Amino acid sequence: MTDDPVTPMMAQYLAIKAQHPDAILFYRMGDFFEMFFDDAVAAAEALDIALTKRGKHLGQDISMCGVPVHAAEGYLLTLIRKGFRVAIAEQMEDPAEAKKRGYKSVVRREVVRLVTPGTLTEDSLLEARRHNYLAAWAEVRGESALAWADISTGAFHVMPCPLVRLLPELARLAPSELLVQEGKEAELAVLVTDSGAALTPLARASFDSTAAEQRLCTLFGVGTLQGFGSFDRAELSAMGGLVDYLNLTQRGKLPLLRPPQREAAGGAMQIDAATRRNLEITAALSGGREGSLLAAVDRTATSAGARLLERRLSSPSCDLAVIDERLAALRFLLEQSRFREDLRDHLRRVPDIDRALSRLALDRGGPRDLTAIRAGLTQARAIARRMLPDAPPLLAEAALALTGHDALIDLLDRALVAEPPLLARDGGFIASEFDAELDETRQLRDEGRGVIARLQADYIAQTGINSLKIKHNNVLGYFIETTTTHAERMLAPPLSETFIHRQTTAGQVRFTTLPLSDLETRILNAANHALEIEKRHYAGLLAAILAQSAPIFAAARALAEIDLATALADLAAAENWCEPRVDASHAFQITAGRHPVVERALRRQGTTFVANDCALTAESTPAIWLLTGPNMAGKSTFLRQNALIALLAQAGSYVPAASAHIGLVSQLFSRVGASDDLARGRSTFMVEMVETAAILNQADDRALVILDEIGRGTATYDGLSIAWATLEHLHDVNRCRALFATHYHEMTALSGKLAGVENATVTVKEWEGDVIFLHEVKKGAADRSYGVQVARLAGLPSAVIERAKVVLEALEAGEREGGTRQKSLIDDLPLFRAVPAQAPKLAPKSTAIEDRLKSVHPDELTPIQALALLYELKELGKD
C-alpha cells in the first residue's frame, strides 16, 4: 500500500468502517480477516497476536493484524467476552470476476453480520447447557416492559417490568446483552453492570410501538398479533426494539423466532438478585456452575433439558396446578423405573434440535445440522411409541408433540449419509441411490479411469485394432491413438464417420469421437457438478425442514420436558428425596431436611449430612424461628437448605427431606453472608442494610425470608437494636415466614413477647475446652457463642486464645457486676505496650486415654487383648 491518494481497497475499507464505527471490522482478504488502524491495535492487544504495518495513510503508518478465516470463531469469542462487537465484511464475489472490471478493481465486500454478545449462534461460541438471551427494556407513557429472546433456540418472551423489577429480572434471566433507548444508558448503567450484561443503546425509532407492531406482524407472517395474546404498548415497544436490532445485526436475515410468550406478573416466585447470589442457585459465589444448586441437581441427558432445568430453578412456579402436574409426572416415572431408564437411553441420543434448526434458518448451518434434526426426530418418534397409555398429562401431551414427522424423517434418511462433513461446500453428505445423476457424476469423478478403460475396450471391439489406446495430455485432453499402419483404415468409411482425425505424428495417428469429447467434459467437471447437485439437494432439504419448523420446535420442547421429568425422577430415586405437598396454606413443615449441595460435597469426603426438621406452622400469626448457636455449627446451611427446599418444590421437583409440606411461597428473600461493594463505596455493613431494607419493604405474608447475623457489622448495641427492630417488623408488618439467625442471645426474650416467634438452636458439645459441632437443630436457645473455641479450631496462636479467655472471663464478670468492672478492665487492657506480654506456654494436658495408650505395645497384643483394650478405652472416654 502506498502514500496518499488512498488506494481503492483502503477507500472501500474506510467506507465500510464508517458504517460501523463502534465495532471491530473483520475485513475479508482471501483466507484471512484483516483489521486496520485502531481496530488492529485494540484487537492485537485483546487477542495477543502480532501487530504489523501495511503502507501509509495521511502520512502515518497503517497498523494491521489478522486472523485466519478457518479459526475466526475462537478469536470472535475472545473479543466478545472482552466487551467488543465485531462487524464481519465478507467477499461477495470471486476475485476473478473483479479483475474483469479492470486491473485495479476491488472485490466487492459487504458486512454480512454484526456479532454481539446477545446474537451468537455457533456452538463453539455458546454454552450448550445455558441460554444466551438478548433482552430489551422499553418505557412508554409510564408503563415499561422487558422482552428477551435466545436466537440460538428461537425462544421469545415478554413481560411487564417496572424499573424497580428490572434488576431482579435481569438476575433471573442473566442476558448477555440489554437493549435500551438512547439517553437511558446512564440511568441504567449500574443495574446492567450488576447483571453482567452488555448495555447497547438504540435509536428512539427502534422502540416506536406502532412500527413495532407492524415489524412483528411481518416477522411472523400474520395480519395481527391477537392470536399470540394481548400486548400493551410498552411490551410491543420492547419486542419491536429487539427485532429491529436483530434485523440490524443479522443484515436482514432474521432468526427463526417462536411466537412471543407473555409472562404474567406473579406467575413465578419472586427472587431478587441478592437472594440468587446468596443461595447460589445457578452459579456459585466463587463464580462458575460448580458448587451451585443447578450443578448438584442436573441429571439431564440433553442440552435443551439442561436449559429448561435452569429456567425452572430460576423461575419456580406459583401456579399450584402447574406444580401438581409436574410432581405427578415425577411420581409416575418413579413408579415406572424401567420405563424411565428406557426413555433416558433414547434421550441420550437426542442432539440439540433447537440450535441446529436456528442455525439452519440463519443460513449458518451445515449437513451436520440436517442430520441432527433427523436424529432428534427419530428418537422423538421412538419415545412417542414407547409412551405408556396411562402416562400423566404432562408426559402424554409431550408424546403427542413428538409425532407427525415420519415423512420428513424418511426424506432425511434416504437423502443423508450417516456421518456427514461439517460444511456443505465439502460435499459427500448426500447418500448414494438418492439421485441417479449424482451417482453417475460421482462415478465419473471417482472412477474416471475405469470409465475410459471400458470405452477403450468398446472402440477396440468396434475397430478390431488391439493396439488402439485412449490417452490424455494437457494440449489435446483425451484422444484415441493408433499406429500409422492403421491410419488408412481409420480414415475410411465407416470408421471415419465415428472417429474424427485430430493429429498425425511420426508414428501415431490421433482421433476423437463425440462421446469421448462429451465424456471428457463430464469427467473434468464431475467434481464441481457433483457438488452443485449436492448443494441443490441441501437447499431442498433445508426448505423441507424449515417448512416444518413450528412442529419441530414443538417436538424439541416436548423432548426437553420429558428429559427434565426423567432427570428429576432419577435424582429423587438416587438421593432418596420425597414428594413435597405444596398447597395454598401458610404451612412450612420440613422433616429431616438436607442441603443438596452440601450433602453432595460431604459425600465426596465420606461424611454424612445431619438432617434437621423445620416447622413454621403458625397459621393465624407469622411463623418465625429465632436461631442461635456458634459460628461453624451450621446455622447458615440450615437457613439455606430450607429456602432451597421451597424453591425446588415450586420448580416441580422432589426435595431432599423425609417429608415436606409447603404453603405456596410468593417471594424468597435471603440475607446470608458478608460482602462489600467497593466500586460503589459500600461497606459490608451498608450492603447488609441495603439488602435488609429491600426485604422489609417488599416481603408479603406469603414470603419466605432467611436472615443471618443482622447488625453484626456495627457496634454491639447498634447491631442488637437493628436486629431486634428487624425481627419485630417481620413479625408485625410483613407477617411472613422467616428463619432469623443471630449471635445476640438477648433477642431470645422476644419469643415470650411475640406470638409467632420460637427459639431454636444448633447444638454443640464442649469437651476439655474444645467445641464439637453436632449440627443438630432443636427448640430452645443457645447459652453462649463459643467464639473463642471456634477461633482455636481456626488455628489462632495459643497465646492469643489464652489471652482471649482471660479477657472474656473479665468482661462477663463485669457484665454481671453492672458494667463498672468492664470499664475498668478496658481501661487497663495493654493495647499499646511496646513489647506485648508473652502468654505463658501451657503444657498440654494429657487424658486418661492418652496415658493408657502410652503403655500399650500393639505388636505384643493378641486379637482378644486388642478387643478388650478397645472396650477399656471406650469406658475411659465416657469419663
Secondary structure: elements and pairs:
Blueprint: H1 8-19, E1 24-29, E2 32-36, H2 37-47, E3 52-57, E4 60-68, H3 72-81, E5 86-91, H4 95-100, E6 109-115, E7 134-140, E8 143-150, E9 155-160, H5 163-173, E10 177-181, H6 185-195, E11 198-202, H7 209-220, H8 233-249, E12 261-262, E13 270-271, H9 273-279, H10 293-297, H11 303-314, H12 320-335, H13 337-347, H14 353-361, H15 367-386, H16 393-401, H17 406-415, H18 436-463, E14 469-473, E15 477-483, H19 487-491, E16 500-504, E17 508-512, H20 514-547, H21 549-575, E18 581-583, E19 588-593, H22 596-604, E20 612-615, E21 623-628, H23 635-651, E22 659-663, E23 667-671, H24 684-698, E24 704-708, H25 716-734, E25 737-741, E26 757-767, E27 770-779, H26 787-794, H27 798-816, H28 820-828, H29 848-854, H30 863-878
Parallel strand pairs: 1-5, 7-10, 9-12, 10-11, 13-23, 18-22, 21-25, 21-26, 23-24, 24-25
Antiparallel strand pairs: 1-2, 2-4, 3-4, 5-6, 7-8, 8-9, 14-15, 15-17, 16-17, 19-20, 19-22, 26-27
Keywords: ATP-binding, DNA damage, DNA repair, DNA-binding, Nucleotide-binding
Function: This protein is involved in the repair of mismatches in DNA. It is possible that it carries out the mismatch recognition step. This protein has a weak ATPase activity.
Family: Belongs to the DNA mismatch repair MutS family.
